[in-house]
Amino acid sequence: MAKVTVDGIEVEVPNGSSVLQACEAAGKEIPRFCYHERLSVAGNCRMCLVEVERAPKPVASCAYPVMDGMKVFTDTPVVRNARRGVMEFLLINHPLDCPICDQGGECDLQDQAVGYGNGISRFHEPKRAVKDKYVGPLVKTVMTRCIQCTRCVRFAAEVAGVPELGATNRGENMEIGTYVEKALTSELSGNLIDICPVGALTSRPYAFVARPWELTKTDSIDVLDATGTPIRIDTRGAEVLRIMPRQDDDVNEEWMGDRGRFSFDGLKRKRLDRPWVKRDGKLKPATWEEAMVAVAEGFKGRVGGIVGDTVDAEAILALKSLLAGMGSANMDCRQDGAAIDGANRAHYLFNATIAGIEEADALLIIGGNPRTEAPVINARIRKAYLAGLKVGFVGAKGLDLTYRYTHLGEDPAALATDFLAGAQKPVVILSREALTRPDAKALLAQAWALANPTPDWNGFSLLHHFGGQVGALDLGFLPGQGGLDLAGMMAPGAVDALWLLGADGFDASAIPAGTFVVYQGHHGDAGAARADVILPGAAYTEKEGTWVNTEGRVQRAYAAVQPPGEAKPDWRILRAAAAALDVTVPFDTLEQLRAAHPLFSAQGLVRAEPGAAPVAGPAGTAAFAASSRNYWQAEPIGRASPTMAECAKVYMGSTPLLAAE
């Protein structure tokens, strides 16, 4: 440790720390533009200048290492004049766009110009203009505002692993952009907006929509993938205008996937905002009373339930209670048919934890593609790879995971490998997609054996796809004694009535004719097309709820807006349905519902003991297929979003690249 004195305050910091970090440890604010805690040091904005005793001139604190006994001064006449000079240079070519800039009110340049600038410019020459670049349907560029801090360049190359941004030309002609004008191919491109300290990179869907002081901010959770990214939902009135990540070093650091960030425009399209009842073969609008009468008349006999992939835990438990009250054990949450029995929680969790990836000394990925299944987790793998982690992959050839890996083979035979030999903390990431194969049980057992879990370290990690999948497994929404799974309920005559709770991830046309179907959800998606009764529920932004991420972290979200029209929170609908069906359930309020299961009293990461190994099934020899998942439109909100439709066109290659605006 080095002892450093900052403005008379003595602090100890690790050897190799920068002067800027020592100043922050002493509680001193240092202005900066190019420096970012999670990126490499560039040292090119010079805004972080400080005085160091016996140094001949002010030094850039972000790039200057500490030495034992060093004395630093952060607020002297020399430092103030140096910062004013730097700010004056930065503003030479910066346009006066504040009244029309989407970063207005959230702009580092704006804030620091007020705090550290001179207030006067001696430069009256014409400002330069730079052509805006097209970098895709999500990020809007106004490159005349760019101050060449290179944060975006370093983020794309270091965190996203897609080195498509860079600087061309030199001096006053320098420009940041793609070398050939094209859309950025990263699923994390929206984070460029957050790290840009000026208005050069902003959100294309949010452009000219609102000012930050007009917005109401609500904490929530991104449930559109299984990472469980903490988010902030910005609303004005009844409309969601923006979604941004919150920082959590154990989950997402400060990054977020593009689907969760930009698909919010799907929340106001194709919505179910009133009940519908099928009469004379056609769905027609109905009142809630008429809908409940239809449910009471049709939902009887042998009944079953299927829940979707993004449903909150409260609604899942409410439906389970309803089915149990009717004496039914026919229920399933595995729309994809994944071979997960739920008997041992450790068999379906990401046990190594997301942050634990950085502790691993070897990592093996089996099947799937973590880049499109969980972009933020894939970025964490890349971070560990850059720090020396060796990565192996068993699956389809030719995948670009944004980091180098050893391709061990394309079929299960490649699992007989010594890649993890000698590793003290191995991590085996098994894609949920691999568990949809006929040999899923054999793969699960092999992956478990490769991870070799112990009470001190369990590296077996199942990577789920959506935010509601683990919660449903934790609540046991699986076939009970004598109950039918999804495939069993699809057999002709197996059930008389079926309740679909946000279940749009399977082929609803396979439901046998004559089966009475109640669909409860927020979008008129696949399940609604087959329904006899449609009950409009609330999307994740419109209700208070609990979700569990892929590592078993219990997270609470809050309502940012009210559901549209006559839609209601799902648990309330199910309580009303229980009354209509004359079924006794153990709750009348949300508090009583949560008291009915210990999951809701837990908060944060809930680990599972390794327990016994999974029972192996027959082995297979078929090669792992390349994933055909459409990342942008993988769930109902994304499928309703015009922005995600545009991304699918650009990135999935279905239409030519759109021209720049």
Automatic annotation (TrEMBL):
EC class (word): translocase
EC number in record: 7.1.1.-
Stored InterPro entries: 2Fe-2S_ferredoxin-like_sf, 2Fe-2S_ferredoxin-type, Mopterin_OxRdtase, Mopterin_OxRdtase_4Fe-4S_dom, NADH_UbQ_OxRdtase_75kDa_su_CS, NADH_UbQ_OxRdtase_ferredoxin, NADH_UbQ_OxRdtase_Gsu, NADH_UbQ_OxRdtase_Gsu_4Fe4S-bd
4Fe-4S His(Cys)3-ligated-type domain boundaries: 78-117
Superkingdom of origin: Bacteria
Residue ranges of every copy of the 4Fe-4S Mo/W bis-MGD-type domain listed in the record: 215-271
An example molecular function term from Gene Ontology annotations: metal ion binding
UniProt KW keywords: 2Fe-2S, 4Fe-4S, Iron, Iron-sulfur, Metal-binding, NAD, Oxidoreductase, Quinone, Translocase
Gene Ontology CC, one term: membrane
Cofactor(s) recorded in Swiss-Prot or TrEMBL: [2Fe-2S] cluster; [4Fe-4S] cluster
Cofactor: how and how many bound: Binds 1 [2Fe-2S] cluster per subunit.
GO biological process: ATP synthesis coupled electron transport
TM helices/strands, residue ranges: none
Catalytic reaction equation(s): a quinone + NADH + 5 H(+)(in) = a quinol + NAD(+) + 4 H(+)(out)
Pfam families linked to this entry: Fer2_4 (PF13510), Fer4_NDSU1 (PF22151), Fer4_Nqo3 (PF22117), Molybdopterin (PF00384), NADH-G_4Fe-4S_3 (PF10588), NADH_dhqG_C (PF09326)
Family annotation (Gene3D superfamilies): 3.10.20.740, 3.30.200.210, 3.30.70.20, 3.40.50.740
Residues annotated as domain 2Fe-2S ferredoxin-type: 2-78
NCBIfam families the UniProt entry points to: NuoG
Role of this protein: NDH-1 shuttles electrons from NADH, via FMN and iron-sulfur (Fe-S) centers, to quinones in the respiratory chain. Couples the redox reaction to proton translocation (for every two electrons transferred, four hydrogen ions are translocated across the cytoplasmic membrane), and thus conserves the redox energy in a proton gradient.
Assigned protein family: Belongs to the complex I 75 kDa subunit family.
Protein name: NADH-quinone oxidoreductase
Biological source species: Rhodovarius crocodyli
